[in-house]
User: What shape does this take?
Amino acid sequence: MKIVAVVNQKGGVAKTTTTANLGACLAARGYRTLLIDLDPQANLTLGLGIEWYALECSLNHVLLDPDEVPLKNILHQIADLPLYLAPGHLDLAHAEAMLMPRPDSAYRLRNSLEDLFKEETFDWVFIDCPPSLGTLTQNAIVASSHLLIPTEPKFYAFAGMDTLNKMIVGLTKGLRFRIELLGVLLTMYERGTRLHQTIAEEIRERFGDKVFQTVIYKNVRLSESEVEGMPIILFDRRATGAQNYEQLAEEILNRATG
Ligand SMILES: Nc1ncnc2c1ncn2[C@@H]1O[C@H](COP(=O)(O)OP(=O)(O)O)[C@@H](O)[C@H]1O
Ligand SMILES: [Mg+2]
Assistant: This one.
């Protein structure tokens, strides 16, 4: 089992899109996959067709009171795939504020996952993080074995990764656990854009083979599938976005086994 935090402190770099679509591609290949929506914007939840505002229980309840609401109780199966979602909610922001003063505030998700894994097994877990480096993101990092960092090929996105690297180093040092970089993913790539090419090259130079060979091209079908509340492979299998995420799944599986 790999537990992967999908992180970047910048918003709009395709963290949520990557979580939903990579997860669906792996599930479609038969891997039991769990997606966790740790963002108070709950875009992952809505994008998978679940109306967070109508839910009785969501991740905020699990974080605040795991004895009352264990993680297992809030899972939703997506389509007919072995794909499960722990839904987010606007109140995650409130949960974060409530947790902050507690000494175990960064360990809440990890503890809940450990309880879940006593009863359920998954091949892959992906955690969609908010665009910040606060307590919620720390929960994701503490719970994860790997990091996946999506980034636009833009200069400011690149600068954000520097901060992220520093935070990862800091957290890893303080907590004495190992977390591996699964990979850096170039998203929203525009064909024939010189600037994108230049920055992509810089990122490859800096992160070497940690940058996925697969690039996610800009493709409006990805946004449309999100609005329709389903992963792109179920919405338009032939779209570039669907093919890109299929290829990413393939690359990740090859890396994991090879
Ligand atoms: N490859 C892409 N091409 C076009 N639009 C994309 C692509 N990836 C994501 N988007 C859109 O860009 C917006 C931001 O993506 P999102 O995954 O929500 O980013 P984040 O979670 O990092 O904030 C969303 O509206 C999404 O549908
Ligand atoms: Mg998001």
Notes: The pocket of adenosine-5'-diphosphate (ligand 1) is lined by residues 11-17, 43, 131, 187-188, 216, 218-220, 222-223, 226, 241 (CB under 6 Å). Residues 155-175 form the longest helix (21 residues).
